[in-house]
Amino acid sequence: MREIHPTAIVDRRAELADDVKVGAYTIIKAGVVIGPGTSIQDHCHIHGITTIGQRCQIGPGAFVGLDPQHVKYDGSITRANIGDDVIIREMASVHRSIYPDPNQATQVGNRCMLMAGSHVAHDCVVDEEVVMANGATIGGHCIVGTRAFLGGGAMVHQFVRIGRLAIISGNEAITHDVPPFSAARYRGLKGYNAVGCKRAGMSRETIHAVRSAFYCLHMNRTVPAAMAAIRKSVPILPEIKELLDFLSSTKRGVLGSVKGQGIARLRRTDEGSEDDPE
Q: In this structure, which long-range contacts are made by residues 36-45, counting pairs with CB atoms below 8 Å and at least 24 apart in sequence?
């Protein structure tokens, strides 16, 4: 049975499953759709054309689907989609897209956890099982791969991609793409995410190949040279192909190695044109 606290304000045009729980002083506006088994705790704001999946835990004091923080946003009807089994803790926020196109919604995938004070900006795509620790922030248009981990206070520049199973240390400022399986610390690539790869069930052969690929990243000063070395010396397993595809498709450049040698942060000549105010 649906439970809505008497002090909550829920627009009659919002669509709530029969067993949704809504806490005190929460505001849910028209256009919001909330799936079964989801609990919206006290003092939350859920706005816009926002879809929240099943068995999610939102709040207290979370802000989901609010207007994007972008100087060019014109008030258009835009969207945010939250998957199933997502946890969004106190004072965390997820903002809608700046584009009215339904295919360009801000997205948070299944089983993600956004800890207190974390922020997902407009037009981000956060894949499944991502963890953002307290105060972690991603700017507009970022892409975060499955099972990535962002440490507390980590800040990710707009348009940056974080690869699958990457881990970013707390309080890092990330301005370039972070490859899959990597560990970022001290403003660069420290190595590969050994613990994360093991927990993901990678075979010993795959982990050895990933470690060898990151050795190539540390020992070569350009991305093309690192890719050539990987192709020459590392078995092209599916995970290595994933890494090579990521490197070859970078637009902002790849985060450099913290070792004495290592890849440069390659940039597009028009990189500055991609920046926006968030």
A: 42/5
Residues with a catalytic annotation lie at 122-123, 140
Residues 150, 187: Cα–Cα separation, whole Å: 14
Backbone phi, psi, residue 237, to 5°: -75, 165
Residue type, 176: H
List alpha helices for the chain, DSSP H.
Answer: 194-199, 204-219, 223-233, 238-248
Contact 48, 79 (CB under 8 A): yes
Question: pLDDT digits over 8-63, tens only?
Answer: 999 999 999 999 999 999 999 999 999 999 999 999 999 999 999 999 999 999 99
Helix (H) or strand (E) holding 132: strand 131-132
Q: What pLDDT is recorded for position 264?
A: 55
Contact by Cβ (8 Å): 154, 148: no
The span from the CA of 155 to the CA of 252, in Å, is: 16
The span from the CA of 149 to the CA of 129, in Å, is: 9
Length of the chain: 278
Give the domains, in start order, of the chain with CATH numbers: 3-196 (2.160.10.10)
- Residue 1's pLDDT is 86
